[in-house]
């Protein structure tokens, strides 16, 4: 039967074996699956899976950054438009308007108010997208560092081990 590598989540010892918490051990696949199901061990991702996950995260971060730039550009345009509208609104509110023109001016002011609310909502969406991009960029940096560490250990002929409780690098 094929063996599988698992990382011990708890220490365990028997008559002819002893496994420490965090140790990567090779056991029969059926035993490995039972230990994983019982919560005593976790799957050890392969280098290929870790690299694929890091690549995916990097692509997501790049896409998020591009979308972020587009949203920032759009926000700048809308902010300029909003400033102009606010100036127009201020000018209009200072003018004395004949009664017959008053209705059309009130409609224009109402449209400016609607645009102002829409601009504010878009600004909030852009701020949220920027925060999400920053989180993805940070996560990508962490994953890249983990992949580099795994590559370094593999090139030294050592068995890679991830920090305990790290669930970011899992085989999908």
Comma- or semicolon-separated keywords:
single chain, 172 residues, mainly alpha, rod-shaped
Commentary on this structure:
The structure is a single chain. The chain is mostly helical and 172 residues long. Helices cover 67% and strands 10% of the residues. It has 3 helices and 5 strands; from the N terminus they run E-E-E-E-H-E-H-H. Strands 4-1-5 form a 3-stranded antiparallel β-sheet, with helices on one face. Strands 2-3 form a two-stranded antiparallel sheet. The radius of gyration is 29 Å and the shape is rod-shaped. It starts with a strand and ends in a 17-residue tail after the last helix. The mean pLDDT is 86.
Biggest sheet: strands, sense, closure?
A: 3 strands, antiparallel
Order of helices and strands: EEEEHEHH
Can you give the mean pLDDT?
Answer: 86
Q: Count of helices?
A: 3
How many extended strands?
5
Structural class: mainly alpha
Percent helix, as a range, is 55-70%
Low-confidence stretches: none
Tell me, briefly, the overall form. Answer: rod-shaped
Strands ordered across the widest β-sheet: 4-1-5
Distance between the terminal alpha carbons, to the nearest Å?
A: 23 Å
Range of strand content = 5-15%
Measured on Cα atoms, how large is the radius of gyration? 29 Å
Layout of secondary structure:
Elements (H helix, E strand, L loop, with lengths): L2 E6 L3 E2 L4 E2 L4 E5 H10 L2 E3 L3 H48 L4 H57 L17
Antiparallel strand pairs: 1-4, 1-5, 2-3
Short description:
The chain is mostly helical and 172 residues long. Helices cover 67% and strands 10% of the residues.
């Amino acid at each position: 039967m094929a063996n599988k590598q698992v990382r011990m989540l708890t220490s365990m010892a028997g008559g002819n074996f002893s496994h420490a918490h965090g140790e990567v051990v090779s056991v029969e696949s059926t035993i490995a699956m039972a230990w994983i199901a019982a919560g005593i061990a976790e799957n050890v991702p392969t280098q290929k899976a870790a690299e694929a996950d890091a690549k995916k995260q990097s692509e997501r971060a790049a896409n998020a950054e591009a979308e972020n730039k587009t949203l920032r550009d759009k926000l700048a345009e809308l902010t300029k438009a909003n400033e102009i509208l606010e100036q127009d609104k201020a000018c209009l509110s200072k003018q004395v308007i004949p009664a017959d023109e008053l209705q059309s001016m009130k409609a224009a002011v109402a449209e400016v108010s609607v645009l102002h609310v829409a601009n504010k909502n878009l600004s909030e969406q852009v701020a949220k997208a920027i925060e999400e991009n920053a989180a993805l960029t940070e996560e990508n940096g962490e994953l890249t560092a983990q992949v580099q560490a795994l590559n370094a250990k593999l090139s030294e002929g050592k068995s890679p081990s991830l920090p305990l409780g790290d669930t970011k690098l899992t085989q999908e």
